Structure formats: C-alpha cells, structure tokens
Amino acid sequence: MSLASIAAPRRVLAPVRAFFRLPKALVAAVVLLLPFGLMAVIPSVIAPYSPYTTVGIPLSGPSGSNWLGTDEIGRDVLSRVIFSAQSDVVISLAATAIAFIVGSLIGVFLGYRGGWVDTAGTRIVDVALAFPAIVLALFLIAIFGHGELVEIVAIAAVMMPSMARFARGTSLLLRNRAYIESSEILRASRAYVIRRHLVPNALRSLLVAASVLGASAVLISAALSYLGLGVTPPTPSWGTMLYNAFQNVFQAPIYGVAPGVCITVLAYGYMLLGRGLGELQGRTGRQERAFRTSVTRV
Amino acid sequence: MAKIFASKLLQLVLVLLAISAITFFLLSALPGNAALYRIGPLPSYTPQERAALIAKLSAQLGLNKPLIVQYWIWLTHAVRGDFGLTTQGEQVTTLLGSSVWASVELAIAGLVPSLIASFALALWAFRTRWRRMQALVQGIMSTLFVIPSFWLGFLLVYLLAVKTQSFPASGFVPLAQSASGNFSHLVLPALTLACPLTALFFRYLLAGLEEAEMGAFVVAARAKGISDRAVAYKHVLPNGFLPTITIVGLATGSLLSSLVIVESVFSWPGLGSLLVQSVTVRDFNTLVAIVLLTAAVFVFTSIVVDLIYWFADPRTRRPGQV
Prior knowledge:
The structure holds 2 protein chains of 2 kinds. Chain A has 12 helices and no strands. Chain A is mostly helical. The model of chain A has no long low-confidence stretch (mean pLDDT 83). In chain B, 76% of the residues lie in helices and 0% in strands.
C-alpha cells in the first residue's frame, strides 16, 4: 500500500473538516437547508410518486408504500411535501431577492442622503413597516388578482420596509467613516460613493438581514397559501396541504405534520443562516441582533 | 400634555386621510368600475344597449364625475360611518359591526394571558440560577416565536380536540347565547394567538431586564446593601419593562395580521375572516373599510403607548423630550 492511498482520504476530508470548523449556527443552517435545496432542485429523484397521481385510498394513514399516508384525494403526502419545496423555496427566494435589493438601495440612499428626503422617506417606511403584514399582502392580492408573480411581489412589498429601515441604519453607521469623507472631499458624486463605498461595506450586514427576510418570506407565503390566496392547486404547497389536513384532522391526523415541520424548519434554517453569517464576520452588531426579532410572524 | 395629545390626534387624522386616499385612487385605477360589476355581462343585450345602460348607471352612481369629487363624496360618507354596500348588497358597516366584537373578544383573550405569562416567565428567567431550565424556557420561547400560528393551531387541535377532546376544534358561540359554550370555543384560538405573543413579549422583557441590570443605579442600589429581590422589583423592573411597552403597542396595533390566520384556522367569525372573504370575492368596499379600521387601530394604539410612557417614564415628561 502506497503512502498516497492513505493520504487521499485526508485530502478529501479536509474541506469537510474545514466546514465543521465554521460557526456552529452556520453548520446547522447548511445542514437544515440542504435537504430543502435538494427537494427544490431534484424532487422527482427523491419523491417516490408524482404529486398529482392518485396512488391509494384517500386519507389513509402511514404505510409501507405511503410513508406519510395519503391526502384527501389519495395522493402520496410525502411526494407532495417534497414537490412543494419547488414553489415554496422559489417564491421565498424570489421575494427575498426583490425585497433585499430594492429595500437595501432605498435604505442606503436615505441614510446617506440625509436631510428632508431622509425624514420624509423614513416616515413613509415607518408607516409601511407598522401596517399589519398579512393585511397589506392580502390587500395587494385583492387588487392585482392572485397568481405566483403577484404573490412574490406582495411578499416582497411587505418585507421591503423592514429591509429599508435596516439598510438606512447601516448606512448611517458608515457615512462618517474616513474613506467616505475623503471620497466626498474629492468631489465624488453621491451615486459613486453609494456604489463604490457604501454598498460594498454594508453588504455583509445587509446579507445577515436578508436571511431574516428569507424566514419571513417562507412564513408569509405559507400563510397565503393556507388562506387559499397563494399557490394555486393542484400545484402542491405546504400551506395548502396544512389547510386540507386541518379539514381532515379527525380522519388523518398525521397528514398535517410534515408540511408544518417543513415550514418551521425552513424558516428556522434561514434564521440560523443569518446568525451563522453574522458570527462568521466576527462580532454581531446590536442592530443585527435586534433585526432578528423583526421576522414577520404569521 | 394636552398639546402632545392634540398633535397625536391630528397625526391620526392625517394618516387615515393619506391611507384612504391611496386606497381609493389605487382601486379606481383598476380596470372596470362599479357599474360594470353591477350589470354583469348581460348576454341578451346588444353592445349599444349595454353601453347605454352602463352610461346611465355610471351617471346614477356618480362615476362620471371627476375622481377627486368622487373621493370627496366617498370620504364624507365614510366619516359618517357609511362605507357603502358589499357585493351581496349589505351595508358594510353592519357587517363590520357584527364581526368586530368577535375579534375584540379573541384579541383580549389572547393579549391579557400572554402579558401575564410573559411577565411571570421573564421575571423568573431573569432571577433564576437554574441555568438548564432557563435555557430550556428560552429555547421553547424561540421556537414559539417562529412557529407559524396555523401550524401551532393544528397541533393544539390535534392534542386538545382530537386526542383528549377537551375543547371543540373550531366554531363560535355568541356570548349572549351561552357563556360556557363561548368560553370553550374561545380557548384554542386564544391559546394559538397567545403563544407567539408570549414569546415576543418574553424576549423583549428579558432583554430589557438584562440591559437595565447593567445600569449604574443597580450597582448603587447593590452597594447600599439592598436585597436582590428588592433590586429586581424596585430598580430593574421599572426600567427594564419600558421597551416592552413599545412592543406590546406594536403587537396590539398589528394584531389583525395574527387574527387573520387564527380566525381562519378556527372559523372564528371576526374581522380576520371577513378580510379573507372580502379578498376572495374582491369585495372592495369591505376591504377598504377593514384596511382603514386597521390603520386607525394602529395609530390609536401608538397614541396610547405614548400616553403610557408619559405615566411610566418621568423622563419623557421633560420639555423637548417627546
């Protein structure tokens, strides 16, 4: 046996070891989120059945062929839970991305611009922030009709104010730094300072905040589909499944457990991701810790 | 004081005006108008006859007037409590009146216990030396914080309605009809509403207490030889619970968000259910009335919060501090 063959596993294991040396919260977040990533990308490989075909007697309990039982029209619950990740993960990611980009830009600009623009903008943001999230989302859905695109935009709109507020705070912390003042002395334009200095330096803590938005997005989208105003059936989604499970709680109590666990674990995973990212960059600021509690509860 | 109160009331009026204007103009920008909705497709009419009918009805309903005039008409009616008719032809105000009390009952039944529980738990967690139990309570609270209430409701129904059959799974009995029936139907939704609120208040209260403990006045009190208990209740608590007032206010103001979910889970006939229903059938008059009511409740609670601060924190009474 040559030395190389003994050394090989060590080389393979090195990245794995490095991964587990990362902050605990980050490791836990990746471990929690990875299955959802797989479920969203390759559901047909993991799931035993198609989410649309009837495979057994409606509302039967767990069995060897249907591990989590069947739903109200005899479809496999496990397969539907797995396929739900597609719509739920995509919707939450898209809404988070929109809210993150637009909210950050508004907030960073307001904080840096200061003056009456900031005062007026912050007022508007505060009012929007204060307005009950679900009510706002429902209002937007009532106006623009329902569909996945409207749902994504509605969720993003609900989360945008809190992101803007956070970004404004971050921008206020940075605007008096020496490198920004020196850039201003060199008569750099506002857009240049924002693009070249503020955004890159704020990005890390903004990303920490974005992961909290991710958790909010999962919860809001699940709530909307629970209310029958989100993903349209027969496309599976955890919220809709929970609603149907609730209607049949006396016949098939096990039906609602998996979708609920998925929603909670995915939201919790996003929260942990934020905490882990924060720990990765050293001391978490007071502002970031405070933001964690601003997750939209449903 | 009176001056501050007056300026807050003015603020309430301004916010309501702004929100009513935004919703009104947003809804008028939608394709189709009330006349179209009322007469429907009318298959037996020729296009000309239909157009004439629409024009006639539009004139009757005042839809041909400029938007700003329409808004004024709507506003003067709304101020008198007249939000028009629902798509079913009922008065919106009557509908609101019948559901608002169910919501208020549920809100109180959720808020009051959660306030008591969170204060008791936070004070206990703050003073205890039993670290493991403290960590466990904190863990449970963090879980309750992110758990979606429709799933919590599901679990509670499963445990307390299906397994042990202690309480009915859903529904509503008016208080006037049967007090015990009303109460037994109230327990599960109130519990579902209270759990996340408890976690929220607990979190802020504990953080506030821990922060107040850092204060120089606590060191001074300890140096004077005051007992731990007296330091906790007389010095830390009065300072530590101030931030929680704001959170309780915010949570109360946006309670309708939670009510929407909890009421649909338990078929509780309150404002939340009404809102979901009006979104589903696109009943805009009801929708606007609920949105305005929500905003009013929100601004009103923020005024109440300011008043409570005025009483609870003498520092805010200094001129120039508010």
